Amino acid sequence: MGPVSFSSHHIASPRVLLHGVDDTIQTMRLTAKTATAVAIATNVARVSCATSSYCPASDVCFQWGVPEAAARSGSGSGSGNVYFQLKAPTTYEWVGLGIGTQMRGADMFVMYASGNNNVTLSTRRGVGHVMPLHVQRNDVELLEGSGISDGQMTANVRCGACTELNLAGPTGWLAAWLQGSPLNSESTSATISVHEAYNLFSVDLAKASIGSDANPFLTTQGNNTGGSGNGNGNGVTDNGGLPNQTLAYAHGILMTLVFVVGYPIGSVMMPLIGNWIIHASWQMLVFLGMWAGFGIGYVMANRAGWFFINTHTQLGVFVCALMGLQPVFGWLHHVYYVKHRGRGIISHIHIWYGRALIIIGIVNGGLGLQLAGTPQRFCTAYIAVASLSTLMYVSAFVFGFFKNRRSRMGDPSPGMSDRSGAKEQQVSA
Predict the structure, then answer these.
(1) Which own/partner pairs from 278-285 qualify as long-range (CB within 8 Å, at least 24 positions apart)?
(2) Region entry Disordered: which residue ranges (predicted)?
(3) What's the pLDDT score for residue 247?
(4) Chain centroid to CA 119: how far?
(5) Do 261 and 207 belong to one domain?
(6) pLDDT score of 329 more than 80
(7) Is 88 a domain residue?
(8) Least confident of 155-169, 284-298, 316-330
(9) Rounded to an integer, what is the distance from CA 234 to the centroid of its chain?
(10) Quick one: CA dihedral 333, 337, 342, 345, positive or negative?
(11) Which of 152, 190, 292, 315 could form a disulfide with 185 if both were Cys (CB 3.0 to 4.6 A apart)?
């Protein structure tokens, strides 16, 4: 066996060998970095891509995320966490998100500026259509990523025992907000003014599952792309806007004009003018206005989910329905008066029935102001107008009483002509 020889090109120099090793190590490092990036991206996707989001207003947005383990349980029995986010500009005084289909009994989470470039999260309980009251909850936590940045308030929230949630299907939610100067309060019991608008919607939390039980919003800041005011979000259904301030004002002002001003003026027309045609025409106009106000109120209450479940709406239905009989009583009274030249039982029914309904209507207006959480200045104005109306009515009643008394002393049988619309000497309602 001959000697074995090696050519120089068959054996690489040590420098070449080391260079090859460096390339291999560098390639391995790049591959490891790529794998890590892919793993992170995959994890981020698992955490955040399934969150549901909804924006009831263009700049007011919410997001939800439910860990897969909790979602599989199918209930909010307190065995798992639920994450949600509130986001709005600092041009809002406060923004609230609540669990429920109406304000009464809703678990609410209210966000407002704290004054130190941070936000305050106030857990509250709805007690009706008034300011919700603070309730301490140890299962609710304000998470990392919350605060104020670039003029945006953000509250990332974890709820550990939101037992009323259905994690396997739709759950009713409500939202409310008010634009204005920041509250700048760290108190969770801060007084908040009545909302300018709010909304009802439902969220299918089964479609908001996330891969891990961790804050999903750290990777999705400012990315509310899954929903809109039309309810097109992932698992979000818009159940319609609830009463906004315009509708509330329209209903309140119209019904105030009807019961505090309109009906009392129509009633005093009889002792002051004595013309039944003018009286009947005026009251019929006010009667139509009452039903217009009732229609607005029905739309508001029905959207809010509290129609006929509180004293104001129940009393309003009864008063308006019973007032429907008043034109009939008025016509029967008129016919009786024409025939007998005086009052009968139907006359007293018409008069006192109308008076009672006017009084109840005025009281119910006050209940409506309370239900709406109306600012004190409007309540004061309502009381003032109602007091003036009552004074006017009592004065007209006294005037009519003495006028009729003098008339009876001078002419025991005061006549009237139903054709000409001449005077009926009595107070009507």
Answers:
(1) 278/421, 279/428, 280/327, 280/330, 280/334, 283/326, 283/327, 283/330, 284/327
(2) 410-429
(3) 85
(4) 22
(5) no
(6) yes
(7) yes
(8) 155-169
(9) 23
(10) negative
(11) 190
CA distance 78 to 398: 67
Tokens of 131: 């300011």
- The alpha helices in 49-152, defined as continuous H runs, are 68-73
Q: Provide the token pair at 201.
A: 């919607």
As for how many domains the chain has, the answer is: 2
d(CA 286, CA 290): 6
Contact present, 157 and 83 (Cβ < 8 Å): yes
Which parts of 189-253 are beta strand (E)?
197-204, 209-210, 236-241
Task: Render pLDDT for 348-384 as a digit per residue (tens, 0 to 9).
Answer: 999 999 999 999 999 999 999 887 767 788 899 999 9
pLDDT-based confidence at residue 228 (cuts at 50, 70, 90): very low
Secondary-structure breakdown of the chain: helix, strand, coil percentages, each rounded to the nearest 5? 45, 20, 35
What residues have CB less than 8 Å from 28, skipping those under 6 apart? none
Residue 267 lies in a domain: yes
Residue 227 near residue 55 (C-beta atoms within 8 A)? yes
Percent of the chain with pLDDT over 70: 75
Specify the residue for token string 């300011």: 131
Residue 84 confidence (pLDDT) above 50: yes
pLDDT at 7 over 90: no
In a domain, 68, yes or no: yes
Secondary structure of residue 222 in the 3-state scheme: coil
Q: In 10 A of CB 190, how many CB atoms?
A: 16
Task: Print the domain residue range for 309.
Answer: 245-410
Indicate if 236 and 330 belong to the same structural domain. Answer: no
Q: Can you tell me whether residue 156 is helix, strand or coil?
A: strand
DSSP notation for 347-369: HHHHHHHHHHHHHHHHHHHHHHH
Residue 167 inside a domain? The answer is yes
Longest dimension (CA), the chain: 161
Q: Are residues 179 and 223 in the same domain?
A: yes
- Single out the residue in 241, 273, 293 at which a domain terminates: 241
Stretch (H or E) spanning 86:
strand 82-89
Nearest-angstrom CA–CA distance, 294 and 288: 10
* Angstrom distance (rounded) from CA 201 to CA 176: 12
- Mean pLDDT, residues 330-348 taken together: 94
Angle between helices 276-304 and 245-256 (to 10 degrees): 150
| 404: pLDDT strictly greater than 80 | no
